[in-house]
Each structure stands twice: as C-alpha cells, then as structure tokens.
Amino acid sequence: MIADRGKPARAAFLSQGAPWLLALLLAVAAVWSLTVGNYPISLADQWRYVLDLCDPAAGPATRQARLVGVVLGDVRAPRLLAAVLIGAALSTSGAAYQSMFVNPLVSPGLLGVLAGASCGAALAMLAELPWTAVQGCAFAGGVAAVALALGLARLSRGDRLLLLVLGGVISTALFTALLSAVKYLADPTNQLPAITYWLMGGLSRADKETVLKATPLFVLGMAGLFLFSRQLDLLSLGDEQARSLGLSVGRARFWLIALSTVLSAATVSIAGLVGWVGLIIPHAGRLLVGPSNRRLLPTAGLLGGLYLLLVDDVSRLAFGVEIPLGILTALVGIPFFPLVLRNARRSWG
Q1: Which residue of 63, 94, 116, 225 has the lowest C-beta tally within 10 Å?
Q2: What is the greatest pairwise CA distance in the chain?
Q3: pLDDT < 50 regions, the chain
C-alpha cells in the first residue's frame, strides 16, 4: 500500500521536474556542441569570446581570438540555434496537431505544409532565384498548401476533422505531383542534385543572417501555441464537449492551424524536410509529463530542440562527410515507431 501511494507522488515529481531537467540537458548539450568539430574550441576560449562580446572597450583581438569568433559566431552558434529552434518548432506543432485532431499518429505535415514548402523551394531553385527567395518561396508554398486544404474542407458539410484530413491528403498529393514535375523539368546536372539534396534536410545553409531573421518567427509561433494550451486541452475532448464548455471550436482550430503552419513552413525554408520529429517527440513528452498541453508543449519543445541538436552533432561529426538530417531522423525515428504505437493508449490516458 505504501508503494502504491508513492507512485502518484513520483509521477507528479517527474511531471513537474522534467522541463527543468530537459532545459539543463539542453544547456549542457549546447555548450558541448560548441566545443566539438573540425576546429575544437575549449570552454576557456568560449568564455573569453563571451567576455569580449560583453566588453565593447576591449583591445584588438588576437589572431586566435578572431578565429574563435568566426567559428563560434558565424558557423556553430547559428547552426546550433537553428537546430534547437527547428526541433522545438516541429515538436510543439506536432503535439498541437495530435491534440487538435485527437490522433496519436498525426504529424505537422498532415495538411500538406511540408509538400507545399518543398514544391515552392524546388520551383524557386528551378528558376535559379537567390537563396533568400528560395526560402521565401518555401514558406509561401507551405502556407498555400494549408490554405488549399482548409478551402477544400469548407466545400462540404460533415465531420470537420475528417474533411480537414481529406483536404490535407488532396493538397499533399497535388503539391507532391507538382514537385515531381519540377524535378522532371530540372537540369539533371546542376539543378536536380541541388533540389534532391535540399529535400533530404540539413543545416549547412543556416547562416547567421537567416537564423536571426527567423528567430522571432519561431519564438512568436511557439509562444502562440503555448497561449492556446487550454484550448488544445478542450479540443482533445472532442468538438461537442469543447463547445459545451464555451469554446469557439472553429476559431480556435483556425488559429492553431495557422500558428502550426507558420512554424512548419519556417522549418522547411531553413532546413528542408526533417521528418519524424513532429511525430515521435510529442509522444516522448506526453509519456514524461502527461497529456496536459500546459506542460506538454514546453516539454516537447525542449525535448525536440535537444534531440535535433544531438542528431545534428552526429550528422556533422560521425562521418567524414555531413549526413543529411532527414536521413538520420528517419533512421532513428522508424525503430521507435512500434514503441509509440504500443504506448500511445497509455500516454493519452
């Protein structure tokens, strides 16, 4: 009996302490990630770099200090921040979609945002536009695909969730076909390899300017989802019960889809297709802290940022060449998928 009474207390302690532990692990992993690479940088060099940044009146930097500044400030720190933001964005949007559609097998690409963003970027590459334009087209393509899915769902009467899913299937099929057409028209010598490699996912193009511009978008998008945590909890009860509790279901679902779409499209515009994060990580967070979105969304964000940061470290360090992120996240995620199916009922309890 004493042991049985202790189980709820331990579960409550784990639920409350998990976000803080994940935040600590993320900080440790970030510091370690900055030290490793083709040019190792010690913790002392990192500390000196931070002090130099905080002291504008410091004297001229030595050659080694300038090299450390370039490696940390222009290469590793932007890539690290991009990995954390993208992992967190995919995880929080995946958790929001799973709660909103009351389905443990839903991912952020349900309404076609990933296919649309991929098609937009590939079309810009085919037109040989600058990289900033490619990113903008990827973002616009993702938004257009979700807008199409929402428009198709409004054409018929019936189960709103089912119609949204069907609209997402049609939108995904359309933009996937358009992407195939773009790849067919691309120059097989230069354009097609560039499109194919970009679609595999990676952070090699995550430079400082791009990451700094995208950071407010990620932060505002995730903050918006956190503010809708109560509405997500109500939506997970079903539309009828949510309405009986005073929730405007259509309005809440629209804003949640809009915020999730912005986050997902932004991830594709920076890193290409990085799959499985938005499907697997929310379940891990739900097993840690339970189904309440007030705790689940921050936990999933921290866990997703930590996960993608570590996967990116493996991508750039484990082999002689950089392995695309999409390949590694799939290789890691697929073995865990049966585990997710087995524990989905328990984690949704």
Answers
A1: 63
A2: 71
A3: 1-4
